[in-house]
Amino acid sequence: MTPRYKPTRSRSEEKKKIQFEKILDGGEELLIEKGMSGFSMRNLAEMLNRTKNNLYHYVESKRELWIAIRNKLFNQFRDENIKIIKNHRVGSNIDLLVKLFEKFVKFGEKDPDVFTMMFTFNSMPHSSKIGEIEKNYHPYRLLDGTAKLIKTTIESGEMGGKDPALIAAFLYSLIFGAMYLDLNARGPNPSLENLKSQYITDIESTIFLDYVMKMIEKLLRNDFLD
């Protein structure tokens, strides 16, 4: 669902939409730069050459802005996956699953800051105010689409297995684990120094992630998920 903006009276709907997109883009940039703990609506207002009160014409709170930014990112991610699915005309359903998993990993490699914002379990900012954006927000469910495709793949006889949701959760646990190790090995995070030194620093990132993807493809193609 496309994020909705809080209505204002002074501008046309089209201008408000454009301004709202600028706020989301600025908020995303500032969150990546400062993290949630260093982010403030005041800093965002200064960055956009606005007043803080002006921002509250569009969102009720920092929490609602955070929801709107993540929702926009997930919508973009979903649309890219839909495009891959629609353009998949040659190959099996397993080939398509591999494409989607590879796209997920490459996205994390290419844009680790956005990937982290979307897929790590950061706490949602607290607010006593619930605006229209939050009321209409529906969390993105990454595993649902994958489970549906796995179900189709099982029914077509391409792979074994009885529980598509369980298989999807298992496969993404492998991918998320690999991405978690890789992203923290490439970025500063003092709390993970021991983990990095023990498991990932001596392995090149590309080699490690390629290995994980090859193992996942073997699981899919050799019917090891029954």
Features:
single chain, 226 residues, mainly alpha, 11 helices, 0% strand
What would your notes on this structure say?
With 226 residues, the chain is an all-alpha fold. The protein is 68% helix and 0% strand. It has eleven helices and no strands. Helix 5 packs across helix 6 and helix 9 packs antiparallel against helix 11 (205-221).
Helix content: 55-70%
Radius of gyration: 20 Å
Question: Would you report the number of β strands?
Answer: 0
Number of helical segments? 11
What coarse outline follows from CA principal-axis ratios?
elongated
Q: Whole-Å distance between the termini?
A: 35 Å
Major sheet size, sense and barrel closure: none
Q: Secondary-structure element order, as H and E?
A: HHHHHHHHHHH
Find the structural class using helix and strand composition: mainly alpha
Mean of residue pLDDT values: 84
Strand content: under 5%
- Low-confidence parts: 189-197
Blueprint of the fold:
Elements lengths: L12 H26 L2 H7 L4 H4 L6 H25 L6 H18 L1 H8 L12 H4 L6 H14 L8 H23 L6 H7 L5 H17 L5
Short description:
The chain is built from eleven helices and no strands. By secondary structure, the chain is mostly helical.
